[in-house]
Specification:
This protein is of the alpha/beta class. It has helices spanning 16-30, 47-53, 80-86, 96-101, 106-119, 131-135, 139-154, 180-196, 218-222, 239-254; strands spanning 5-9, 37-41, 60-63, 90-93, 122-127, 163-166, 206-210, 229-232. The structure holds phosphoenolpyruvate.
């Protein structure tokens, strides 16, 4: 059976009250879940609080960002070893909101990828096309371009054990989710693209989809063989809808023998 990976990205939302309510509801219903990897990504300042709240449960911790440097005069930044120290397992990098609002380039993201791998943390590398690239049929080209910098600097083997989140930018926070058949096509392309450059051909990459995932479209997405899970934004801020997404993802993946 395939265990889906469901990550809830809280973005710039939440406070201490939200954490205690959200985590206690999650703990009650999916706190000991075995057939799904459930991960939450709170804002940086609450990582420690959330780590305590999820203690002894199956829920795991993800950070939303990391700095390029390990230590030194970099005011306001958080390093990979600090994230490891606090108990994070996954770290989101390359999210389109950081590419847009914080001018992060593919090269910067490749450095973050390298630093996380070195520290033993799992990068959740977000890639995806703009609305224009989508309209012009350049989705695969855009995804390949974002992967290429890492491939050329670190090789295909560096992708082993990593999570890639395919997130079409036009689908994020818009309510316009990409069609599952189209997502499948892109995921298959990404997997093959990396595998072709992997000399040993034994790397395993988890590929999630993100972009307006809800309890209404999760079954269609998880019916696809190359969609290994989902990265959820808006819908993860409501515990009931996040739990529905997790349960439906498990139901769909457990009924499939890919
Ligand atoms: C995201 O920001 O990664 C995301 C997928 O958001 P949403 O689910 O709101 O589209």
């Amino acid at each position: 059976m395939i265990h889906p990976l469901v990550i809830g990205n809280w973005k710039l939302n939440g406070n201490l009250h939200f954490i205690s309510t959200m985590v206690s509801i999650l703990r009650q219903s999916i706190g000991s879940i075995q057939n799904c990897k459930v991960v939450i990504a709170p804002p940086m300042i609450y990582l420690g609080q959330v780590k305590q709240a999820i203690y002894n449960s199956a829920i795991e911790l993800c950070a939303q960002n990391v700095d390029l440097h390990i230590s030194g005069a970099f005011t306001g930044e958080v390093s990979s070893n600090m994230l490891k120290d606090i108990g994070a397992k996954y770290v989101i990098i390359g999210h389109s909101e950081r590419r847009l609002w914080h001018a992060e380039t593919d090269y910067v993201i490749a450095r973050k990828f390298y630093i996380l791998k070195k520290e033993g943390l799992i990068p959740v590398l977000c890639i995806g096309e703009t609305e224009l690239e989508h309209q012009e049929g350049r989705t695969k080209e855009a995804c390949a371009r974002q992967i290429d910098v890492i491939l050329s600097l670190q090789g295909a083997e560096a992708f082993n054990g990593v999570v890639i989140a395919y997130e079409p930018i036009w689908a994020i926070g818009t309510g316009k989710s990409a069609h599952p058949d189209k997502v499948q096509e892109v995921h298959e392309f990404i997997r093959t693209y990396i595998a072709q450059k992997d000399a040993k051909k034994d790397s395993f990459v988890t590929i999630q989809y993100g972009g307006s995932v809800t309890s209404k479209n999760i079954m269609g997405l998880c019916a696809q063989p190359d969609i290994d899970g989902v990265l959820v934004g808006s819908a993860c801020l409501n515990p009931e809808s996040f739990i529905d997404i997790i349960r439906l993802a498990v139901k769909q993946k457990s009924s499939k023998m890919f």
